[in-house]
Amino acid sequence: MSITLKQVFNKDKTFRPKRKFDSGVDLRAAVALPHGEDLNDWVAVHVVDFFNRINLIYGTVCEFCTEKSCPVMSGGPRYEYRWQDDHKYKKPTALPAPKYMNLLMDWIEVQINNEDIFPTSMGIPFPKNFIQICKKIICRLFRVFVHVYIHHFDRMILMGAEAHVNTCYKHFYYFSTELNLIDRKELEPLVSQDRGFVPKGTLVPM
User: Fold this and answer.
1) In sequence order, what E strands does 1-135 have?
2) In Å, how far are 7, 56, 83, 122 from 1, measured between CA atoms?
3) Cβ distance 158 to 68 under 8 Å?
4) Are the C-beta atoms of residues 155 and 199 closer than 8 Å to each other?
5) Residue 76 near residue 189, CB atoms below 8 Å
6) Which of 6-10, 27-31, 137-141 has the highest mean pLDDT?
7) Which has more confidence, 144 or 10?
8) CA atoms of 168 and 164, how far apart (whole Å)
9) Which of 36, 159, 176, 198 could disulfide-link 182, Cβ–Cβ 3.0 to 4.6 Å?
């Protein structure tokens, strides 16, 4: 990409129309599929919303997430994430966290803006593998939370943003687990943490 990382994660644009969620609502109840609602529509709205919100969360710490401070995309010493795609990185490849994040956000943006995957016109069906694609998006977005919580949460606290991040994470967690969009094994990096920043009652023992 030709633009700087800070520009990438301070985008003013919203990639798709997003639904606003009232922070005062019961998030656990709010994520349940409403009666009569199409599952694909429900998932699509939430995936786009989470992408925009998590993109902005990482944007608040991206200037402190450098190749020097974060030479590997990880979630503590036990968890390392390697990038793979259908283009340059056809095998899982270890990358610095900012490079990994850049590729991750670009990849999700491409999926969301692909009308064949996320149709916006009435009457155009979602692809048969839509939920599987969303599972991959959710899995990769979760890794942003892992990295931010474990490596940059002190910065969030200094900025007074921890409550916002925790609320977003709880919403994301409830939604992903309610609809079985994430493998419980993927949740282990934050389940295993005991540093007080993970919302109480959010994570469950594996």
Assistant:
1) 82-83, 93-94
2) 11, 19, 16, 33
3) no
4) no
5) yes
6) 137-141
7) 144
8) 6
9) 176
Enter the pTM of the model. Answer: 0.81
Question: Which amino acid type is present at position 74?
Answer: S
Q: Is 147 annotated as a binding residue?
A: yes
Residue 8 to residue 129: CA distance in whole angstroms: 29
Residue in 52, 19, 59, 87 with CA at minimum distance from that of residue 156: 59
* Whole-number average pLDDT of the chain: 82
27 vs 58, more confident: 58
Tokens of 76: 């503590």
**Does 46 belong to an annotated binding site?**
no
Characterize 133-152 residue by residue with b for buried, 16 or more Cβ atoms within 10 angstroms of its Cβ, and e for exposed.
bbbebbebbbbbbbbbbbbb
Q: Is 35 assigned to a binding site?
A: no
For residue 53, the model assigns a pLDDT of: 94
